[in-house]
């Protein structure tokens, strides 16, 4: 279970952010994949070479097992296109059979193909019919992964890709928020159930000779869902994004986004799956699409790590860089005396 949102500041700097909530340890850290990064599809074993450099959260090892390719869960490319994949249980409906006329991918590979080959959402709209996501157990997790994807670019547009009846559907996301199942259209309709939530206390209400007054500050948010269901996290995130003052610069934007993510971040041991495994927020990640920077906050350390896709990295580097060894998962402090 995860939460993602797009965000723009007053300088028209664009961001795509997410919490990574999962019970299986993904061991993700900030990574850089250069232009021409080569990877091999799991189904047809076809080698691919990325056109664009990519930066985000990923790994080439899961559960002590070395992967054939780096896998990324949220990232951006050198053109400022960003994608995050989120769990979509009981809803994802992929192709059952491979296509002879398309590039066949397992769901975990779609984000790599999108960022490696598309400069914008406009390009993605035109190229998405070149690929098929297949219901397959050949991927990283050795089981079919039900996913949907939120995508944003430097124009400020945000869309989602969801699979229905075996095909990939790209649709506009008017609120710039995505969580998990049900599908986006259900979550948008569900917003209509919360028309009275507001930032200010309700006005006084007169009942006969009695005037009822709001009991305290925050009374206007009575009814705001407080749990960790995807529907509840969706409502809370839309509410926070709607009413927080828009950031004036990048620093304030990062701070605002982290506060929004904190409102849906899951501590350890609060949510368990059916096998009593802890489903928790393993990290928070933010992609800055205009400055080409990635911000990473691991679970065990509330320090914000920042890595930038510099011009030198884009133009000169041919090496994959994993920044994981520079990340501490033990809480750090700034001593004041």
UniProtKB/TrEMBL annotation:
Which family does the similarity line name?
A: Belongs to the peptidase C59 family.
Q: What is the lineage of its organism?
A: Bacteria, Bacillati, Bacillota, Bacilli, Lactobacillales
User: Choloylglycine hydrolase/NAAA C-terminal domain: which residues?
Assistant: 2-318
Signal peptide residue numbers: none
- InterPro entries attached to this UniProt entry: CBAH/NAAA_C, Ntn_hydrolases_N, Peptidase_C59
UniProt keywords, alphabetically:
Hydrolase
Protein's name in the database: Choloylglycine hydrolase family protein
Molecular function per GO: hydrolase activity
Does the keyword field hold Protein transport?
A: no
